[in-house]
Amino acid sequence: MGDEKASETLKVLLGLTGSVASIKAVQLVSNLKSVRSPGLDASQRSWSTVEVRVVATERARHFFEEEELRREADEVHFDQDEWEWKDRGDPVLHIGSSLCLK
Predict the structure, then answer these.
(1) 79 has pLDDT over 90
(2) What is the DSSP string of 4-30?
(3) To 5 degrees, how large is the angle CA 44–CA 46–CA 50?
(4) Can you give the pTM of this predicted structure?
């Protein structure tokens, strides 16, 4: 049972806005990806990997290099990605992103 819990993935959804704090996005994602679960007893949750998905506003793009962020994060989305659906029933980014955290 302890092994099952240790194999879980810690899922992080990072939101970036047009704040100067977004300049640290690549470093933050890199640090999050390297976090390892503390040695917890079998009754507590632990993880073996960290998955980081990023959603950034258009203004946030001024504070980081997109290619660097894409290399570090598991997924990167921007404002315009929210509007890629065409028909009713098509996948919607903000709904899919919330489901990824379960």
Answers:
(1) no
(2) HHHT-EEEEEEEE-SSGGGGGHHHHHH
(3) 155
(4) 0.74
pLDDT band at 91 (very low <50, low <70, confident <90, very high): low
What letters, b where the CB count within 10 A reaches 16 and e where it falls short, cover 56-86?
Answer: beeebbebbeeeebeebbbebbbeeeeeeee
Query: What's the fold here for domain 2-99?
Result: Rossmann fold (3.40.50)
Radius of gyration of the chain (CA): 16
What are the CA-CA distances from residue 39 to residues 3, 7, 35 (Å)?
A: 12, 13, 12
Give the percent of the chain with pLDDT over 70: 69
DSSP state of 79: G
Decide if 31 contacts 50 (C-beta within 8 A): no
For the record, the structure tokens of 46 come out as 């632990």
Question: Is 3 in a helix, a strand, or coil?
Answer: helix
What ranges do the domains of the chain cover?
2-99
